[in-house]
Amino acid sequence: MAAMQLVLLFGSTTLLAQPKYDFRNATKISGPTRGVGALYRFSNVRTGTDALVTITAITGGLVLDDLDGTSSGFQEAFQPVITVPANSKGYVEFNIVFVNTGTSTAVVQTEVPVTPIDVDGKNGNVFEFDEISRNSSSYVDYDMVGNELSVTYPSASRVQGMNIAGIDYAGVDTVAKQVMFTVMNAGISSLTVRTGGDNKSGSSQQRLRSLYFQKFIYPHSVLSQTTLPASRINNNANAEDQPLKVFPAAIRSMVTVKVKAAKSGTATFKLIDYSGRTIKQQPLPVQQGGNSIVINNLDNVIPGNYIILVSIGDVQTNQKVIKL
């Protein structure tokens, strides 16, 4: 079993710098207003570069009320306003191409960071989500503290952040890191983003979405934790006092997780690979004190090195494992 270490992770709740790209004051070039096929130009998203944005799909009966809302949030962010019908799930898909200013000539960007912020919900029955395309040189980052955002990979070329708590945060800001994630693509001239919602309520819901083209620092970054896994135990701790024990350390189809909980409730189990991808996630009912839980159906997980992370409230513990 790998030795456990205590790692202190320091972060900031502020932006690293000015936004990489500034999306505001779009003009329509062609197509139906806010409909599929509409083409818009955001001029000077950075010096010498425009962004051509095409609406390529609208699903689930969603309505795009505003291409780039300004009532809240950030003027420089791309902020679609959508209405999700009652008992419906869908998204609006945008294809974004970076071009030389005033032309339609695509130009490769060194790096393009996209951070969906305020991916929240409402009343436990409305859940926002964003999906970003990614290439082979991309990476994904988010805060591993909190259980409000599920970051998954619908395909090798897409990453999705789905709110699973249904909690609404007033306004749009970058304080609630637990409902943000960042996708960094390198060497691209275009990308596809989907922004949507799952509305399980009986009435339509209007939601302001916000895609900020900027990197952020996360206090409990998944990148920091997968590079050097952290655990809230030290190397000399007695095994019986450890808050998390996972065995066997070399797993095949199942694994047993022993975890201590300060009170009864629900924990979250995640199996994470070293690129930060969540391979498997499921809730774990826990009782106050010691718990022993068997996780099955791991047969289809690709062999390799992984991290098992268990979160209970704002307390998280993790351990390295090998999938045989």
User: How many separate helices?
Assistant: 1
Report the CATH C-level class of the largest domain: Mainly Beta
Unreliable stretches (pLDDT < 50, length at least 5) are 1-17, 225-241
User: What is the CATH architecture assignment of the largest domain?
Assistant: Sandwich
- H-E order: EEEEEEEEEEEEEEEEHEEEEEEEE
The structure class reads: mainly beta
| Biggest pleated-sheet summary | 9 strands, antiparallel
Approximate helicity band: under 10%
Query: In the residues, how many domains can be counted?
Result: 2
Give the termini distance in whole angstroms.
15 Å
User: For the CA atoms, what is the radius of gyration?
Assistant: 21 Å
Number of E strands = 24
% residues in beta strands: over 45%
Mean pLDDT: 85
Give the CA-based shape.
globular
Task: Examine the coordinates and then state which fold CATH places here, giving the name of the CATH topology of the largest domain.
Answer: Jelly Rolls
Describe the structure.
With 324 residues, the protein is mainly beta. The chain has one helix and 24 strands. The strands form five sheets. Strands 1, 2, 3, 6, 8, 9, 11, 12 and 14 form a nine-stranded antiparallel beta sheet that branches. A hairpin with a 2-residue loop joins strand 11 and strand 12. It is globular, with a radius of gyration of 21 Å. The protein starts with 26 loop residues before the first strand and ends with a strand.
